[in-house]
Amino acid sequence: MIVKVIHSEAQFSHYFEKMDRDQFSPEGYGKLFQYYDSLSDETGEPYEIDVIAICCEWTEYDTVMEVVHAYNIDIDEAEDDESAEEYNERITETVMQELLNHTIAYHLENGNILLLNY
Fold first, then answer.
1. Rounded to whole angstroms, how far apart are CA atoms 1 and 75?
2. CB contact at 8 A, 25 and 60
3. Are 93 and 86 a contacting pair, CB within 8 Å?
């Protein structure tokens, strides 16, 4: 079997672009590359990239509210003395805790949430 070695996040994302599956942000591709690179290191086996499977297994949401609606996660209403920023931080923490109880999830630097669908 021939396995192509991928050395960078850019090379990883290129495979998706080549298959017209450009559905993750640069931060999302970076986190996925790190995930599969670590998985390969942990198992001692090379990971053969399967773009279609990754696209089916993972979703990147632009906002925490998209995740709330997609997974019907209960969140509290904003408190009277709570700023919008404080509320967003609190619900993001709540949503991430809920997701991590069920799956692998990452709150990315760009604010998006990347998760292994469950």
1. 48
2. yes
3. no
Cβ-based neighbour number of residue 36 at 10 Å:
16
d(CA 100, CA 79): 25
List the domain boundaries for the chain. 9-116
Please give the angle made by the CA atoms of 5, 111 and 86, to the nearest 5 degrees.
150
| Short-list 44, 49, 52, CA closest to 11 | 49
pLDDT value at 6 more than 90: no
Over range 23-38, report the average pLDDT.
95
Whole-structure pTM value = 0.87
Helix, strand, coil % in the chain, rounded to nearest 5: 50, 10, 40
